[in-house]
Design a protein that fits this description.
By secondary structure, this protein is an alpha/beta fold. It folds into 2 domains: about 190 residues, Glycogen Phosphorylase B (Rossmann fold), CATH 3.40.50; about 160 residues, Rossmann fold (3-Layer(aba) Sandwich), CATH 3.40.50.2000. Helices cover about 40% and strands about 15% of the residues. It has a 7-stranded parallel sheet with strand order 3-2-1-4-5-6-7, with helices on both faces. Strands 10-9-8-11-12-13 form a 6-stranded parallel sheet. The protein is globular, with a radius of gyration of 20 Å.
C-alpha cells in the first residue's frame, strides 16, 4: 500500500522549492502525493498562484482558506487560528501517513499544529536555520520540535536540529531543495525571457526582493525607502522587483514598489509571481539579488552572481562569499552597490561555492519518505548533546 504524503504549500516561493520533490513523490511507486494549497496561493492579491500548481500537472486535493485581508499582527494571529481549523478538517478527510512541510511561515506553523494534534507524523525541510530578524525564527524551531523527520540544507543546520534534541538518525542533510530546480531546468535565454516578461534588460540589472523584518515594529516603509534611494543613485541599472509576502507590513512595501515602477517606466518592473522558471532565468541574467530574501543566500551563489543582503531578516544564515551584508541605510546599501560592480568582486564570483550544496536533493528525500519506518515514530525521545559533543555526519 502506498504511503500518502500530504504536501502543504502556502506561497509561490516555497512551492518553487517543493516542485521537484512533489514530482518525485508523484512518480514514486511507493508514495501517493496529496497537495494542500493555502495562504497566498488562494489570494487574488498575490496572484491566485494555486493555478500555477494545477498548470504544472498537480491535483490540489484540499484548499485551506486562512488569509484575512489584513497584515497587522492581530490579522496574522487570527489567520493562524483559521488555518489550524482548516488544516484539521483537511487532514481528517485526506488521512495522510506523513505531512510534509517546508520552512517557517505562519501558514506552515498552523499546518504543523493541526497535524501534531491529529497524530500524523511530520517531515520538515529547512529546519535548523536562523533568521534573527523575523518571527519565522521561532516558528521554524517550533515546527522542528513538532516534526519527526528532518531534511536540513547544510551540515551546520543538521547539527542544530540535533542540538534541539532530535534523534540523529531522523535528521538528514541532503542540501537545499532549491538546487534541484537550478540543475533540472533549461533556463530561458535573454531574448526569450524579455519577451516573457515584457521588459528589456540593460547593461546592468538587479533583482530586488525585500520583505518586512517582522520582529521590528513599523520599519518596513522606512527601510525600503532607504533601498529605493540607494537605487536612485544608479539610474542606469534596470530593476526587476518581486512583491513581498503576506507578512506584517507587506502592504506598505507593495504600495511603494507600485509607485516606483509607475515613476520609472522602462527602467523598473514588478511581479506578484514569476514562477520558478522565470525567477531562475532572471537570476541567470542579473548582476545580483538585492534585498533580504533567502533566495539571495540559497540560490544566487549557484548562479555565480552577487547578493546584497540588507538588515537582519536573514541574520544567522549560512552565507557564500558572494553575499555582502549591509545595514538598511542608503549609505550602507550604496557602498555595497559600489563594491558589487568593482572589478575585484566581479572577478571573485567565478570561484564561489554554494554552502547549500549542488544536489540532487528531491530523489533522496523521496526515498526516505518511502522507506523510513514510521510505526511508533510519534513518540520521540529527547536526544541530549553535551557541550563538547558533535554528532558525526555518518550517524
Amino acid at each position: 500500500m502506498k504511503r500518502r504524503i500530504s504536501v502543504v504549500t502556502g506561497s509561490r516561493a516555497e512551492y518553487g522549492l517543493l516542485y521537484w520533490l512533489m514530482k518525485e513523490i508523484q512518480a514514486s511507486p511507493a508514495l501517493e502525493l496529496q497537495v494542500v494549497a493555502t495562504g497566498m496561493h488562494l489570494s487574488p492579491e498575490f496572484g491566485l498562484t494555486f493555478r500555477n500548481i494545477e498548470e504544472d500537472g498537480f491535483r490540489i486535493d484540499e484548499k485551506v482558506e486562512m488569509l484575512l485581508s489584513s497584515d497587522t499582527p492581530a490579522g496574522i494571529a487570527k489567520s493562524i487560528g483559521l488555518g489550524t481549523i482548516g488544516f484539521a478538517d483537511a487532514f481528517a478527510r485526506l488521512k495522510p501517513d506523513i505531512v510534509l512541510l517546508l520552512g517557517d511561515r505562519f501558514e506552515i506553523f498552523a499546518a504543523a499544529q493541526a497535524a501534531l494534534v491529529a497524530r500524523i507524523p511530520l517531515a520538515h525541510l529547512h529546519g535548523g536555520e536562523t533568521t534573527e530578524g523575523a518571527i519565522d525564527e521561532a516558528f521554524r524551531h517550533a515546527i522542528t520540535k513538532m516534526a519527526h523527520l528532518h531534511f536540513t540544507a547544510t551540515e551546520e543546520y543538521r547539527q542544530r536540529v540535533i542540538q534541539l534534541g532530535e534523534e540523529p538518525t531522523r535528521v538528514f542533510n541532503f542540501g537545499a531543495a532549491a538546487i534541484d530546480g537550478i540543475r533540472n531546468q533549461k533556463l530561458l535565454g535573454r531574448p526569450e525571457l524579455e519577451q516573457a516578461l515584457g521588459f528589456s534588460f540593460g547593461e546592468r540589472n538587479l533583482l530586488v526582493t525585500f520583505h518586512p523584518v517582522t520582529l521590528e515594529p513599523d520599519t518596513a516603509g522606512q527601510q525600503f525607502g532607504e533601498l529605493l534611494a540607494a537605487l536612485d543613485d544608479l539610474p542606469e541599472v534596470r530593476l526587476i522587483f518581486t512583491m513581498p509576502n503576506a507578512d506584517t507590513g507587506g502592504r506598505v512595501i507593495r504600495s511603494m514598489i507600485e509607485g516606483y515602477v509607475a515613476a520609472h517606466p522602462g527602467r523598473a518592473t514588478a511581479f506578484d509571481s514569476l514562477g520558478q522558471l522565470r525567477y531562475f532565468s532572471v537570476m541567470g541574467q542579473v548582476d545580483a539579488v538585492v534585498g533580504n530574501s533567502s533566495s539571495g543566500l540559497i540560490e544566487a551563489p549557484s548562479f555565480h552572481i552577487g547578493t546584497i543582503n540588507i538588515g537582519d531578516r536573514q541574520k544567522g544564515r549560512a552565507k557564500a562569499a558572494s553575499v555582502m551584508d549591509c545595514e538598511p541605510t542608503r549609505k550602507s546599501i550604496g557602498e555595497a552597490l559600489v563594491r558589487l560592480y568593482s572589478d575585484d568582486f566581479r572577478a571573485s564570483l567565478g570561484t564561489v561555492a554554494n554552502p547549500y550544496g549542488e544536489g540532487p536533493v528531491a530523489h533522496r528525500i523521496a526515498e526516505v519518505l518511502a522507506t523510513y519506518p514510521i510505526e511508533g515514530i510519534l513518540k520521540k525521545k529527547f536526544f541530549s548533546l553535551t557541550v563538547t559533543e558533535e554528532v558525526s555526519r555518518d550517524q
